[in-house]
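Onboarding guide, step 5: your first structure request.
Type a short instruction followed by the sequence, for example:

Predict the 3D structure of this protein.
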Amino acid sequence: MRALIFTVLVLNTFFISVAHAENKSLTIMINNQEYQFDDEIRLASVLSLVSNKREWYWPSASAFDLTDPSAEREKEIIMSNIRELLTQFDRGSNTYKALNSLYEQVAAWTVSTRLNMAISYNRSRLFFEDNPMFKRGKYWLRLNERPRLVHFSGAIVKPGAYEHQSDTSVYTTSHNIAKLKGADKNFVYVISPVGKIEQKGIAYWNLDFSQLMPGSQVYIPIASAPFSNQINQLNKRVAALAVHRVLPQ
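The system replies with structure tokens like these:
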């Protein structure tokens, strides 16, 4: 019996030490290539490994913390909110149809917790504040060449990726996309490739003629219901979750 207890204690100590060692490791995946580091490392040193391999479009580069499940949890909360809202509307109503479409879209999203980090090889070498340290953990850097697409979601007939048009305003682009009848007609949310969220006007009284960056997302919000702020809050949460989307390339 004593021998068994001793063996269990030894095994527990072994697994604890392994888990402790794993927690101390630092792994950074750059696109599909994985790199292991013995010590904490700064962004510039990581990017130096791949900076000359392709013509990277730094504004659309993103970094994800693969050990942080916050984005996945937020996705589940949003889906639960939509299910609850669906019970408040008639199945034939425009709001119900828009909510149901949004539920299917969010369910299909792949999300991962994105770091609030601007990624640029030149800036990371020049400015200390743009050269953060990667601490122990597992991260994913997604780099790509200049995107050719803009991604639309929300109260839209055909959600998905559309060809980016140069010198085209938010107003023009959004009006060229077929929307559901339950869509808000006053504004859209634009999520830039660097993760910045802005409301842009699309009504005659608040037109916004700023241009979309390639690789941006446009979320068409659902029109709010009278005497309720629930859908407005949902729209804001979905736009915020879009920052953490792993977009198809």
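Each response can be followed by summary notes, for example: The CA atoms of residues 29 and 140 lie 5 Å apart.
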